[in-house]
């Protein structure tokens, strides 16, 4: 079966089994789910307020009779520039608009995987048809693909246009902080022009955001909110680190050494996370040192994206959409049963996982960590899949 036909089938499966249920959930939920945080943050900022003021966001939501509470906003200030389109829209309409944006970004991700990283069409088609984090990201109104797409474009164009590549990855890092990890790829290769371009872009975007998010609010993010991420303090987010759907390295250490509250890591867990982070990055750097057959090196980029997902304190279902290129790369480089097993456990929906735990209670603890173990397996497959020149 030709690659084009497989892609068409993958798209059709996605539209019916992924987008259709996500659309229904979005239009039936005027509260906007996670998207409400971005929506009310940009509304407050446009009104001259501090978007990191959760009380003001919630007051605005209650005044509009949309919801009683709103998750705190804790993204970098320039992220709100990407939400300016939502300013004239009611929450429910903007939430639908975000679903459309995510579909367009998904299409861009597919094109980039195929053209920029040489993945097999069958791998992309299979992921479109089966990968549950794609519709999860869509119906939650999340912005993961908004950061992933410019990062992928930047990495793809950097070999010929290093400044443009750095600008795009710098943009991605100022939408969500985690894509800044991709700068390590260029640092490992000794390519400093895109790194400098990314840093300059970050500064320029912060300055460009000043008319929307004032200096005091920006300083609050960089000096108060951002430093709290390492301890699990996401600006007052009241979602327990121990939530069963958390698939991160810090969550494992939190289970070993629980923190003083459900929302904060203990000192021991923070230390364990730091050691594990440094060890994982050292392993990545050792494996991908030296020249590869391709630039960008798909395996190196894919493995780094796995670390980008598992190292933050919170790794939920929608975050796993970041692994779509990594899975497609692994399937292309290492086709076989191992990648199918890894892909299955990353893709199976949470209700399947919970059903399996109830059906086989003796395996419940292992099944609970099945997605994390699959993340580790994906990292290992990408380490093994690197093609080295000479």
What does this protein look like?
With about 400 residues, the protein is mainly alpha-helical. The chain is about 60% helix and about 0% strand. The protein is built from 19 helices and no strands.
Cα shape: globular
Major sheet: none
Q: Tell me the structural class.
A: mainly alpha
- Count of runs of 4 or more consecutive helical residues: 19
Number of strands: 0
Low-confidence stretches: none
Which radius of gyration do the C-alpha atoms yield?
A: 20 Å
Oligomer: single chain
What is the N-to-C succession of helices and strands? HHHHHHHHHHHHHHHHHHH
Instruction: Report the β-strand fraction as a percent range.
Output: under 5%
Helical residue percent band = 55-70%
Euclidean distance between termini CA atoms: 34 Å
- Average residue pLDDT: 95
Q: Mind sketching the topology for me?
A:
Blueprint: H1 3-27, H2 35-46, H3 54-63, H4 91-116, H5 121-130, H6 133-139, H7 144-157, H8 162-173, H9 183-188, H10 192-208, H11 215-225, H12 249-256, H13 267-287, H14 298-310, H15 324-333, H16 337-347, H17 350-359, H18 364-368, H19 370-384
Quick recap:
This protein has helices at residues 3-27, 35-46, 54-63, 91-116, 121-130, 133-139, 144-157, 162-173, 183-188, 192-208, 215-225, 249-256, 267-287, 298-310, 324-333, 337-347, 350-359, 364-368, 370-384. The chain is an all-alpha fold and 390 residues long.
């Amino acid at each position: 079966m030709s690659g084009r036909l497989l892609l068409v089938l993958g798209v059709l499966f996605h539209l019916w089994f992924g987008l259709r249920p996500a659309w229904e959930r979005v239009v039936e939920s005027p509260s906007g789910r996670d998207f409400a945080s971005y929506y009310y943050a940009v509304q407050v900022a446009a009104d001259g307020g501090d978007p990191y003021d959760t009380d003001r966001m919630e007051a605005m939501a209650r005044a509009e009779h949309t919801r009683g509470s709103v998750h705190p906003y804790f993204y970098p200030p320039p992220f709100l520039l990407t939400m300016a389109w939502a300013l004239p829209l009611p929450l429910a309409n903007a939430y639908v608009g975000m679903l459309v944006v995510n579909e367009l970004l998904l299409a861009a991700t597919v094109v980039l995987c195929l053209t920029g990283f040489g993945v097999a069409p069958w791998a992309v088609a299979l992921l479109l048809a089966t990968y549950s984090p794609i519709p999860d990201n869509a119906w939650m109104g999340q912005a993961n693909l908004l950061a992933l797409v410019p990062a992928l474009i930047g990495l793809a164009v950097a070999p010929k246009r290093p400044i443009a590549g750095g600008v795009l990855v710098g943009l991605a890092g100022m939408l969500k902080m985690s894509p800044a990890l991709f700068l390590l790829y260029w640092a490992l290769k000794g390519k400093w022009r895109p790194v400098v371009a990314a840093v300059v872009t970050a500064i320029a975007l912060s300055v460009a955001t000043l008319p929307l998010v004032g200096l005091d609010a920006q300083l609050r993010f960089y000096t108060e909110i951002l430093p709290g991420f390492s301890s699990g303090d996401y600006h007052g987010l009241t979602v327990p680190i121990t939530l069963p759907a958390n698939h991160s390295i810090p969550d494992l250490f939190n289970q070993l050494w629980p923190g003083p509250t459900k929302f904060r890591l203990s000192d021991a867990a923070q230390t364990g996370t730091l050691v594990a982070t440094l060890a994982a990055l050292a392993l990545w750097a050792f494996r991908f040192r030296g020249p590869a057959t391709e630039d960008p090196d798909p395996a190196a980029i894919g493995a780094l994206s796995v670390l980008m997902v598992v190292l933050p304190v919170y790794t939920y279902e929608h975050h796993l959409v970041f692994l779509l290129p990594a899975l497609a790369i692994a399937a292309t480089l290492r086709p076989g049963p191992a990648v199918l097993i890894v892909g299955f456990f990353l893709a199976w929906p949470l209700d399947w996982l919970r059903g399996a735990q109830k059906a086989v209670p003796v395996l419940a603890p292992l099944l609970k960590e099945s997605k994390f173990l699959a993340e580790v397996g994906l990292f290992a497959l990408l380490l093994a899949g690197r093609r080295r020149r000479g």
